[in-house]
Amino acid sequence: MRMSDRGQKDIHGSWVPSPDPVANERREPADSTNAMPRIAISEALRNNWIEIWYQTKIDLKRKCLAGAEALARIHHPQLGVLPPGSFHPEVDDAGIAELTQQALLATLCDWTMFEEAGFNLQLAVNVPVSALFKLPIPRLVAEYRPRSERWPGLILEATEDQIVREPALINEIAAQFRASGILIAIDEFGAGFSSFARLRDLPFAELKIDRRFITHCATDAANAAICQTAVDLAHRFGSTAVADGVEHPADLQALMVMGCDFGQGPLIAPPMPKEHFVELLRQRMGKPRAAAARPAPGGSQKTAGRVA
To answer: How high is the pLDDT of residue 3?
Structure first.
């Protein structure tokens, strides 16, 4: 699998572990209560309340920057930034598809901003399987992708429980995606309990281990066994293993010993707005602060920052 700038300047383990000096100003609240506000996707899109935040992904073997995952967040004018569970659970496919398209286009646009800041990142976007079937993703990527020769392509993440339902269609779609520089990752692996036989038939480039197994994998024998199996399985299929939701230094060390390829989670860096994300990268890489942000082409802010 091709990751972005694997030869990029090594940052000598400064990502492992990492405090969060940048995102304190706009840290998202914990998703911990059943009483949180629920916002319909259509309402958030209509009122321009969607933002795309980014979470760092690191190479656990080289201890250097590898990429980032794009995550949609609601920034409500009165309630502030709402936790991930704030999207109303009763949503229709049309709303999900519209949100997915906006997130995809914003991520493609943001890559250019990151490159201009000196970072060649392979970005990943969460995509429901229903949107994979509904949206003309290869056409959208062909039209809106960065024109730089350095663009490393895009990763689309779909959860295991969704992706194993339609293996034939997923294989057909994946063949079209590869021609457009798009790879597929299986997200939340282990939560869907798919058989290895079904997994063998899926065209995935990354296997993202579900966070419930990452947590305490250094001390919980069952979690450690599941993580090790997932890492070995990914490697046997010629793919890479990603530890998602890493919170504890001991777990991170255990994953390194297991041979896990990449990691992300609050221990390394939480999700944050793109401006803070770029500033965090500058601090870690020793780059000077940018003088001023360049406006998006044509003066539009929709695809550059806040997603309509």
So the answer is: 36
